């Protein structure tokens, strides 16, 4: 079976984002970009399933600007077999991305699509669920464990009070939570090999998907700064402050 | 205008986060709520202040809140509503975007402020920026960050209850089971005080150093991702961008450095206390009160001082 893994190029998770002075967004020019950490976990899971013999091919796809091909090369260096880049504006909305992915799913006919649970830039946590909705497939979101048994996917999901298990008919959608696995580092030889793996480029417009955003960003602002606090020398002082100054205990 | 709130509950109890979603929805107009599961939960929902009508999805297929049947049901009800709202917990985040796809709507997650019927504020980049967005969709589907809205009163309402018949949906998923962690402590997201530990707690055993402190404060226990990944505590304790978002009156961070992903989950707390050996730990930049020192000395002293 084939596994499709959508990956997103985002501002590196170690970078503290800066809001642009004109309030139009967050500065991304000249900022280090990387693969969304949850997508690394999704790629890792797909590659592991192939290594176990449960899958025959792993195809990675990214929707975005030309530079997203670097992200796709990284995914191929981790073990993905080939890549598709769907060229569009920077950071289209989950609704548009899910529609693009639906078109690719119809063409590639994967048995499983594994996505990250959310992208760390827009923090939407929606694309996987929306794709599942468009396709009418089952969804195993926030997955911490995936097993393929008897033609179904058994998924442990991280929910508010603990862990829930669901079983999904294939084909299905899974979104990866942090604890699903520990993604591997790409070795230098694999990075070199990944340069030779096939990368196909298509225009979003050619897929017949309307990419017009539904949300207009009115403004982007810095959150209110917290007032600088004080360092105390003793526990007694702390308890006194909490009781009499902050009045929280 | 009328808003429909998807009310999540566990063990027969309506979650406090769902009551916050009701409170947020009252800013948008009349409020109806959709409840799955036992009739007793529908009865409880009818008592929530501000709720005009309870839609009770009694069919067994909705019993475990599987996204596939529930999203189909929500989409079928959408005709009567301008806004569809859920708390931004695991339940709302699972169901609402799927329903949005069925309605061809871009959902708006983690709303912290309602500016008008079509304009909302939500954090992006792990809370490092606040985006104000205006939706051009005919219907608005939102999840609400519960820490940003006071909960609606659980009593005082007297809504009518209407039982819904089931809606067709593909049977592509099956509920297999759930393991809930049992705790006598308050729920993390609604606790007034949260005592949290990080990598500096060193081990699962030593993490229990925090237990007496949590007991004396009546606090919930939280943790950083480092503490969860090291296996000190179960993952539902995780506070941060990818875990729970909390805003208690008092947040006490022990052995937590203060990575941006952690701060995203707690920096709206009213008072933050940090205890860390490293005077340069970023947590001190957001802490109202800090102590530079060994938490294994500080915590027992704190317990003693608080008992006085």
UniProtKB/TrEMBL annotation, chain A:
Residue span(s) of domain Electron transfer flavoprotein alpha/beta-subunit N-terminal: 23-211
InterPro entries registered for this protein in UniProt: ET-Flavoprotein_bsu_CS, ETF_a/b_N, ETF_b, ETF_beta_N, Rossmann-like_a/b/a_fold
Database matches in Pfam families: ETF (PF01012)
Keyword field contains Transport: yes
Superkingdom: Bacteria
Any one GO BP annotation for this protein: carboxylic acid catabolic process
Cofactors that this protein relies on: AMP
Entry keywords, A to Z: Electron transport, Transport
GO MF terms held by the record: electron transfer activity
Similarity comment: family membership: Belongs to the ETF beta-subunit/FixA family.
Quaternary assembly: Heterodimer of an alpha and a beta subunit.
Role description: The electron transfer flavoprotein serves as a specific electron acceptor for other dehydrogenases. It transfers the electrons to the main respiratory chain via ETF-ubiquinone oxidoreductase (ETF dehydrogenase).
Protein's recorded name: Electron transfer flavoprotein subunit beta
Organism: Acetobacter peroxydans
UniProt lineage: Bacteria, Pseudomonadati, Pseudomonadota, Alphaproteobacteria, Acetobacterales
UniProtKB/TrEMBL annotation, chain B:
Organism: Acetobacter peroxydans
BP GO terms, sorted: fatty acid beta-oxidation using acyl-CoA dehydrogenase
One Gene Ontology term of the molecular function aspect: electron transfer activity
Cofactor note: Binds 1 FAD per dimer.
Domain Electron transfer flavoprotein alpha/beta-subunit N-terminal: 3-179
Cofactor needs: FAD
Binding site for FAD: 199, 224-225, 238-242, 255-262, 276
Assembly: Heterodimer of an alpha and a beta subunit.
Protein name listed in UniProt: Electron transfer flavoprotein subunit alpha
Function: The electron transfer flavoprotein serves as a specific electron acceptor for other dehydrogenases. It transfers the electrons to the main respiratory chain via ETF-ubiquinone oxidoreductase (ETF dehydrogenase).
Keyword Flavoprotein assigned: yes
The keyword Zinc appears for this protein: no
């Amino acid at each position: 079976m084939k596994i499709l893994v959508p990956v997103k190029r985002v501002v590196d998770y170690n970078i503290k984002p800066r809001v642009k002075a004109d309030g139009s967004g967050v500065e991304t020019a000249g900022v280090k970009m990387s693969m969304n950490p949850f997508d690394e976990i999704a790629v890792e899971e797909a590659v592991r399933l192939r290594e176990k013999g449960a899958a025959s091919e792993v195809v990675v796809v990214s929707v975005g600007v030309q530079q997203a091909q670097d992200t796709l090369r990284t995914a191929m260096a981790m073990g993905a077999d080939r890549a598709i880049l769907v060229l569009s504006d920077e950071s289209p909305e989950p609704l548009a991305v899910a529609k693009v992915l639906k078109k690719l799913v119809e063409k590639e006919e994967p048995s499983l699509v594994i996505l990250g649970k959310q992208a760390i830039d827009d923090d939407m946590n929606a694309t996987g669920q929306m794709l599942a909705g468009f396709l009418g497939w089952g969804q195993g979101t926030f997955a911490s464990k995936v097993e393929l048994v008897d033609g179904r996917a058994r998924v442990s999901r991280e929910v508010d009070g603990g862990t829930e298990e669901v079983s999904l008919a294939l084909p299905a959608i899974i979104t990866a939570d942090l604890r699903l696995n520990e993604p591997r580092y790409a070795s230098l030889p694999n990075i070199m090999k990944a340069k030779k793996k096939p990368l196909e480029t298509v225009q979003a417009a050619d897929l017949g998907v309307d990419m017009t955003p539904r949300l207009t960003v009115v403004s982007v602002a810095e959150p209110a700064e917290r007032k600088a606090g004080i360092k105390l020398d003793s526990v007694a002082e702390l308890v006194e402050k909490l009781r009499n100054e902050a009045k929280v205990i | 205008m009328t808003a429909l709130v998807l009310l999540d509950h566990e063990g027969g109890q309506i979650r406090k986060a769902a009551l916050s979603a009701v409170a947020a929805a009252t800013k948008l107009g009349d409020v109806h709520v959709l409840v799955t599961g036992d009739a007793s939960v529908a009865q409880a929902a009818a008592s929530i202040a501000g709720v005009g009508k309870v839609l009770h999805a009694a069919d067994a297929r909705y019993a475990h809140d599987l996204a596939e049947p529930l999203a189909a049901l929500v989409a079928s009800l959408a005709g009567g509503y301008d806004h569809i709202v859920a708390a931004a917990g695991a339940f709302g985040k699972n169901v609402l975007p799927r329903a949005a796809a069925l309605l061809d709507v871009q959902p708006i997650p983690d709303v912290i402020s309602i500016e008008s019927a079509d304009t909302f504020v939500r954090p992006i980049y792990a809370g490092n920026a606040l985006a104000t967005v205006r939706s051009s969709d005919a219907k608005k589907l939102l999840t609400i960050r519960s820490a940003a809205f006071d909960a609606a009163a659980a009593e005082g309402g007297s809504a009518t209850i209407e039982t819904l018949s089931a809606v067709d949906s593909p049977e592509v998923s099956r509920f297999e089971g759930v393991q809930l962690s049992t705790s006598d402590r308050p729920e993390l997201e609604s606790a007034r005080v949260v005592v949290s530990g990080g990598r500096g707690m060193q081990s699962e055993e030593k993490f229990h150093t925090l237990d007496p402190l949590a007991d004396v404060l009546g606090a919930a226990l939280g943790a950083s991702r480092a503490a969860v990944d090291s296996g000190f505590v179960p993952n539902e304790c995780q506070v941060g961008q990818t875990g729970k978002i909390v805003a208690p009156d008092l947040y006490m961070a022990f052995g937590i450095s203060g990575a941006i992903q952690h701060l995203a989950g707690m920096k709206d707390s009213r008072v933050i206390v940090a205890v860390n050996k490293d005077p340069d730990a970023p947590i001190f930049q957001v802490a109202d009160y800090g102590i530079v020192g060994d938490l294994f000395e500080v915590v027992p002293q704190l317990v003693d001082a608080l008992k006085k």
